[in-house]
């Protein structure tokens, strides 16, 4: 136990944790959206994220960028960032839809028990991550230095880098947009209707299949953004990157109240920050153990997460 | 016994079996047992034998792998299939069983100076340890429902793995070597040696048979009926006087016990374990086996458990062009899982009772 380490580095640990938590929160949205509508854990969501991390690397590769290239100019940086984001979003979105069509839709037609969905999702997850593992020879792949982390400003003894700020702001903006979309648009009303009562929604003329596909797509888009941010922050990706961070993201979704969008944001940020405190206190190998102990303790007192399950509530 | 009557009226193998007189049923069981014990010699069957046996891995070893996977599937089936508690961290109990054995017997253990036991002496202590682990996990978490329970159990397995990786007592990657094999000699030679895996498979088979008998009796007792009630509707069960927490704890402890048995056997055969053995994918694989085989049905769990071990082992050593299929084993396995579940959502050998419930539910659902 290293209390002085924690207190001395409290500021930096918080900022790092917030940036990490923002990525986790974006990732967690996919779990929470699908759960809110289908009441199922989409186990293959980690691979949706994984495809995003590789897609932007591949497209940056087309531009001749690899981990050893020099940092681009400001204009080039913005261009590459936007291109990377777009490609990652498309790749993740397409993967999410493919998972829906291959692993979920046939089972829904056959009215299968809930566990069956979990298992096909596990199958899809195994297939995608293992295929990636074989094709990349299970090596990690480095990320080109699109954004050089530079200190931007300092509060007290805490330095915030441009990358950390970008990640946190982007996550908050995306959360806001998604929240507006679900609560304000016609399609969003369809999603809320299906999550409240699928059968009544279908009788009222909501196209259930389309809503479900839309939910997978939205989760995929958010995972794509999270994937690019992850690449830039961590600097490498690997075939099991999705699985490992997926556990955190799933835990974050449950922590905030699975099925609840704002819960995912809160859960993600909280988990990111507390993981970093735990790493400062006990050493980084205990980071995940600490987050799970925290999860158990919180679930004991609030069995449906901090904000409760409520994608379908009229005012979510 | 309306359930039994419906078994008889059904077609298929189980319908036929249910209609036979008791002595025929006993003969069928005896033949099945003899065939199971003769499995290590399956390669000697003309024509089909060589197709069945694994090429890249010694066949008796593959059979032993299947036997502990089957044990794990049987244990998880109690938790998931009977009591309906989604446990994503079942490998944790397997790990506790294996590490318990290793700590008590291996010369690498800090306890070796005090204990240094033989394998057989360590077995009951290790199993008691896993049951305690089951209770420790169950006590605070069983108030949680469904998916919340899933994430907490997943966390439990992760915490055990992190402990194994990060603490010096559990030695991380270096692991424990020279864990003693099970005892016994035959003609002056130890039965459980290093080269021949056949006795280990037979030992595994005996344990499996004992577990099947035990679980079958439990399922038909008050405990089993309580599990059924909890699985179907927890609130209703509670109101009807079933002490849900107590029976859920029972399911966890028994599931943990069986998982620990798998771990103890595994440690005894391998002689070496380290933290790499107990990755999380392992428990997800076992869960896939249980549901693929037919959740809530022991025959299904056995088939599913055997398949999740057999399919990857069988793919080892087969090359297509210049690539070894073993590289692709889990990717292919993922595909197989999807195909099986899409074609048979209730599993390969569905539980009859659950199939009836499913039909019942179809009536309730509005047309799509």
From TrEMBL, chain A:
Q: What is any Pfam family matched here?
A: BPD_transp_2
* Entries under InterPro entries matching the protein: ABC_BtuC-like, ABC_transp_permease, BCAA_transport_permease
Identify the keywords attached in UniProt to this record, alphabetized. Amino-acid transport, Cell inner membrane, Cell membrane, Membrane, Transmembrane, Transmembrane helix, Transport
Keyword set includes Transmembrane helix = yes
**Record bears the keyword NADP:** no
Gene3D superfamilies referenced in this protein's UniProt entry, alphabetically: ABC transporter involved in vitamin B12 uptake, BtuC
| Membrane topology reported for the UniProt record | Multi-pass membrane protein
* Signal peptide region: none
Where found? Cell membrane
Membrane-spanning segments:
20-41, 48-65, 77-103, 115-135, 163-182, 211-230, 250-274, 286-303
What family does this chain come from, according to its entry? Answer: Belongs to the binding-protein-dependent transport system permease family. LivHM subfamily.
* The protein's name in its UniProt record: Branched-chain amino acid ABC transporter permease
TrEMBL record, chain B:
How is this protein positioned relative to the membrane?
Answer: Multi-pass membrane protein
Q: Where in the cell is it found?
A: Cell membrane
What highest taxon heads this organism's lineage?
Bacteria
Q: Does the keyword Calcium apply?
A: no
Locate the transmembrane regions by residue number: 21-42, 62-83, 90-107, 119-139, 146-164, 200-218, 249-268, 280-310, 330-349
- Entry keywords, A to Z: Cell membrane, Membrane, Transmembrane, Transmembrane helix
Which InterPro entries does the record match to this protein? ABC_transp_permease, LivM-like
From which residue to which does the signal peptide run?
none
- Please report the name of this protein according to its UniProt entry: Branched-chain amino acid ABC transporter permease
């Amino acid at each position: 136990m290293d209390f002085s380490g924690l207190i001395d580095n409290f500021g930096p640990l918080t900022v790092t944790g917030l940036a990490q938590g923002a990525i986790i929160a974006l990732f967690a949205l996919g779990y929470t959206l699908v759960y809110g509508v289908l009441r199922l854990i989409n186990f293959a969501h980690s691979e949706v994220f994984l495809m995003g991390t590789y897609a932007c690397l591949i497209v940056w590769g087309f531009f001749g960028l690899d981990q050893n290239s020099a940092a681009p100019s400001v204009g080039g940086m913005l261009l590459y960032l936007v291109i990377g984001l777009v490609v990652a979003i498309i790749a993740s979105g397409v993967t999410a839809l493919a998972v829906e069509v291959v692993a979920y839709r046939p089972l829904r037609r056959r009215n299968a028990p809930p566990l069956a969905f979990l298992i096909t999702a596990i199958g899809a997850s195994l297939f995608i991550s293992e295929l990636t593992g074989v094709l990349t020879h299970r090596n990690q792949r480095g990320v080109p230095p699109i954004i050089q982390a530079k200190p931007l400003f300092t509060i007290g003894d805490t330095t915030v880098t441009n990358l950390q700020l970008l990640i946190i702001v982007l996550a908050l903006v995306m959360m806001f947009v998604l929240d507006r979309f679900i609560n304000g648009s016609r399609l969003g009303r369809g999603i809320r209707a299906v999550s409240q009562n699928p059968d009544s929604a279908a009788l009222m003329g909501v196209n259930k299949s389309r809503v479900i596909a839309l939910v997978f797509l939205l989760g995929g888009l958010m995972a794509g953004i999270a994937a690019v941010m992850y690449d830039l922050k961590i600097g490498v990706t690997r075939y099991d990157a999705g699985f490992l961070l997926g556990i955190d993201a799933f835990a974050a979704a449950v922590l905030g109240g699975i099925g609840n969008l704002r819960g995912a944001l809160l859960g993600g940020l909280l988990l990111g920050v507390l993981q970093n405190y735990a790493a400062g206190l006990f050493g980084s190998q205990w980071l995940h153990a600490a987050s799970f102990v925290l999860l158990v303790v919180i679930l004991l007192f609030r069995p449906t997460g901090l904000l409760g399950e409520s994608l379908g509530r009229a005012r979510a | 016994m309306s359930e039994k009557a419906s078994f008889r009226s059904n077609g298929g193998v189980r319908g036929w079996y249910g209609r036979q007189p008791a002595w025929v049923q006993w003969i069928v069981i005896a033949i099945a047992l003899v065939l199971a014990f003769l499995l290590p010699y399956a390669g000697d069957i003309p024509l089909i034998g060589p197709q069945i046996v694994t090429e890249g891995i010694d066949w008796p070893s593959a059979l032993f792998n299947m036997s502990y996977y089957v044990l794990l599937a049987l244990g998880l089936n109690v938790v998931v299939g009977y009591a309906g508690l989604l446990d994503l961290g079942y490998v944790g109990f397997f790990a506790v069983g294996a590490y318990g054995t290793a700590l008590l017997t291996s010369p690498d253990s800090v306890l070796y100076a005090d204990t240094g036991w033989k394998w057989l002496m360590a077995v009951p202590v290790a199993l008691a340890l896993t049951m305690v682990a089951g209770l420790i996990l169950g006590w605070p978490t069983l108030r949680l429902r469904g998916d919340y329970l899933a994430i907490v159990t997943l966390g439990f397995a992760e915490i055990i793995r992190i402990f194994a990786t990060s603490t010096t007592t559990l030695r991380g990657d270096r692991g424990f070597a020279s864990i003693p094999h099970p005892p016994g000699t035959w003609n002056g030679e130890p039965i459980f040696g290093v080269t021949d895996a056949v006795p280990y498979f037979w030992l595994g088979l005996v344990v499996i048979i004992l577990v099947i008998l035990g679980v079958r009796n439990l399922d038909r007792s008050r405990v089993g009926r309580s599990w059924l009630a909890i699985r179907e509707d927890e609130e209703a069960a509670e109101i009807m006087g079933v002490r849900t927490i107590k029976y859920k704890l029972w399911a966890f402890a028994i599931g943990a016990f069986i998982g620990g048995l798998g771990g103890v056997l595994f440690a005894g055969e391998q002689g070496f374990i380290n933290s790499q053995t107990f990755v999380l994918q392992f428990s997800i694989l076992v869960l896939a086996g249980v549901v693929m085989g037919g959740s809530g049905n022991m025959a299904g769990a056995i088939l599913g458990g055997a398949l999740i071990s057999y399919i990857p082992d069988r793919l080892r050593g087969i090359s297509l062009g210049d690539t070894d299929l073993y590289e692709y084993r889990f990717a292919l396995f993922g595909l197989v899982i999807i195909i099986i579940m899409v074609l048979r959502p209730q599993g390969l050998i569905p539980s009859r009772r659950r199939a009836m419930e499913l039909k019942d539910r179809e009536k309730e659902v509005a047309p799509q």
